[in-house]
């Protein structure tokens, strides 16, 4: 199980040349759209081997973000923003939400009779690392967190 990391707060997050972002309308189609988006990204970067894990993990983060406050809009509708950045050792995929509190630590073993609470267990089990970063966007007056996971880069990356 990977360790959960809570990073220090950042203001007005910026993305370099290796970063992409997408907005998904905040409804039940968002997890599926995020899965398609992340799969296309990893395929374009020569990482078909990472698609399955990335799809599962981004789906969990977007599903969690559906329950939180909204920070973004698309044509007047609430939206979820997701990002992918490519660092020297790993790809970081993350989702913003409007709740600045860190996500709960997932239980080692979720109860068998519960219908919720398994998402972060999957994230912790599959991701190389995962965590959350509180943020403040003073220009828009937004506060919240960026929940992310990392998948390692390999020699096959383009």
From TrEMBL:
<dbReference type="Pfam" id="PF13581">
    <property type="entry name" value="HATPase_c_2"/>
</dbReference>
<dbReference type="InterPro" id="IPR050267">
    <property type="entry name" value="Anti-sigma-factor_SerPK"/>
</dbReference>
<keyword id="KW-0808">Transferase</keyword>
<keyword id="KW-0418">Kinase</keyword>
<protein>
    <recommendedName>
        <fullName>Histidine kinase/HSP90-like ATPase domain-containing protein</fullName>
    </recommendedName>
</protein>
<dbReference type="InterPro" id="IPR003594">
    <property type="entry name" value="HATPase_dom"/>
</dbReference>
<keyword id="KW-0723">Serine/threonine-protein kinase</keyword>
<feature type="domain" description="Histidine kinase/HSP90-like ATPase">
    <location>
        <begin position="32"/>
        <end position="128"/>
    </location>
</feature>
<dbReference type="InterPro" id="IPR036890">
    <property type="entry name" value="HATPase_C_sf"/>
</dbReference>
<dbReference type="GO" id="GO:0004674">
    <property type="term" value="F:protein serine/threonine kinase activity"/>
</dbReference>
